[in-house]
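re: that complex we talked abt at group meeting.

here r the seqs, copy pasted straight from the sheet so there may be weird spacing, ignore it
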Amino acid sequence: MKNSLLAGLALSGTLLTPVTASAATEIEFWHAFTGRLGELVTAQVDEFNASQSDYVVVESHKGNYSETLNAGIAAFRASEQPHILMVFEVGTATMMSAKGAIKPVHEVMAESGADFDPSAYIGSVKGYYTTTDGEMLSLPFNSSTPVLWVNRDAMSAAGVDPDTDMSTWEQVSDVLDALKAGGEECPLVTAWQSWIHLENFSAYHDVPFATKDNGFAGLDTELSLNGPAQVAHLTAMGEWAKDGKFIYTGRRNEGGANFRAGECALFTESSAGYAGISSEADFEFEVRPLPYWKAVTEEPQNTIIGGASLWVLEGHEAEEYKGVGEFLSFLSTSNVQASWHQNTGYLPITLEAGALTKSQGFYDKNPGTDIAVIQMTAKQPTPNSKGLRLGSFDQIRGIIDEELEAIWSGDKTAQEAMDSAKERGDTLLRRFESANK
Amino acid sequence: MDKRVTFRGWILPLLLIAPQVLISAVFFFYPATQAIWQSLFIPDPFGLSAQFVGFGNFEFLLGDKFYRASFLTTAVFSILVTLCSMVPALFLAVLADRLIKGSGVYRTLLIWPYAVAPAVAGVLWLFMFNTRVGVVSWYLGQLGYDWNHVLNGGEAMGLVVVASAWGRISYNFLFFFAALQSVPRSVIEAAAIDGARFWRRFFTIVLPLLSPTTFFLLVVNIVYAFFETFGVIHTITAGGPQQTTTILVYKVFSDGFVGQDLGSSSAQSVILLIVVGLLTVVQFKYIEKRVHY
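got the structure back, here u go
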């Protein structure tokens, strides 16, 4: 009863959405951004709409990343799909296997005749969304990578020098001891635990997260996240959790609220946390590169991206695809990209946008904002650090989250938890393989 | 004994049941058949192709120990929700029934929580018990208890049960209250004259007379716990930690709509259909026999 009432309200809400009446061709764009990011997307769309009169891009927010992907899939099944759908990196394998539902971006660009030069995009970002033959399937939109956020005031308050070197986890471990001893109640907190402490951890230490080049080389991939390097890291984290040095707040970015409120000293979070932290934090903060274990590697590899890309869906008119091409090429222009990068902390997706940001003096004025870019691009990616391409990955992340929670609560050892995550995840990978034969 | 009124023709009765049949056909038979059909395939998310696997999805599910554990979780959850929503409701109804003045005010206040949608109720409780900023968890912390439903399965279960039962107390209260009003005063007075005290009268006279209502509420509440608590679980725990609050319905959702595994999701709805069918048979065959109308 109440549910149907809510559904009714939601429906009338959609019906009442103002429809722009004009001769211009409409292009639907579904995304997952709210708050500050939502405003920035709206601004981009408005700018594009104002810049020409042939096309009108209509943006709509469809919930969080998972919900947006589901909305897109459900819409496709009902033949009501938008032209452009934002899909987070986790859904990449799902989209890539959906031949017949997606229209590769390189094709859209070629047909529309819009300016498009794949080599303009940053390799480690592009690589995630490109076929093994080098054809770009979706347009990178917002890409970020994890970094270490430091609350300098909290460090000082606990009697720890805020300038202490924290490049390695060994050093961080000592800092956590000192913070705890200094009375800090929340020494370390994290967002997106699987993404940062397993997926990026593996790439950063150049160990495989899954076989077959992390899934890039075939659907018959298996998880290998139960390797010694990962287990050692999670064992250490588990001990920190037990001693109250690592505080677990939830599976997504719940910890961000604690960090922004000044309650926590260290925070592993995406570089895109910048938008929120810079506007809310009333303490002195700093960005540091993600730490690595000196015991595992002398020098870290590169980290991988998180975030989303824009997929073009099949089933629309050629004229509309022309508009899609125009819009996508507008989004890739240096000015749009540079301001997006500077406002959000997401990586600039083109080399030129990075250079422009630098020449504008942004990095000098905001020290640390280039750390993410350097961390991603300093080294040539190896097969272990190109990214991940695993089917059913949203669900596998759920499994990993559960197993990690078992470590934090002390129910399982890191080895037991990761062995179980591998076993359960592999079953899903086999199902995905048979669904996409 | 049996008094029956029969229709003379066929057309009128058919017309009369047509709306119900139509609604069942559209909202139940059609989707149920679809679910059974789809449970035999592993389709890709976009519905572009499907692999026929026979009973493969069922084998996959029943071989999954987390799925089997989900049955137990569902049973524990449903029983707790039913108890936690019916017992306090009955207690409050008995108290409200004894009131001479102002029962209207109490009644109205007690009914309010029912107006809160499950998902909203979930968010309310989540805020109170939020591990870092929640009011209740803060007080518990002051008492020396470290509340953390994000990691502790028992606490997570407790929280979703309370959040699900809370709004239902109002609903159950209404029914119990109405039923109490219809218990004949003369019977109670006679018992009182015989010297039976309040609780004795309650257990020997009132409770048996309430049995049709109690039975009805039992069925309705179990169905509620099975199917309508989705919003609460989604907002509070999303089935975690370690699937300790993943009830069967939530798993249908998370596999189908998060995991895009429609084959497994359909197979689960078929299993759920069977479970609920069996449950209904048990309820009506065995429990109803003990109900006095």
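couple things i noticed - Residues 392 and 432 of chain A are 6 Å apart (CA to CA). The mean pLDDT of chain A is 90.
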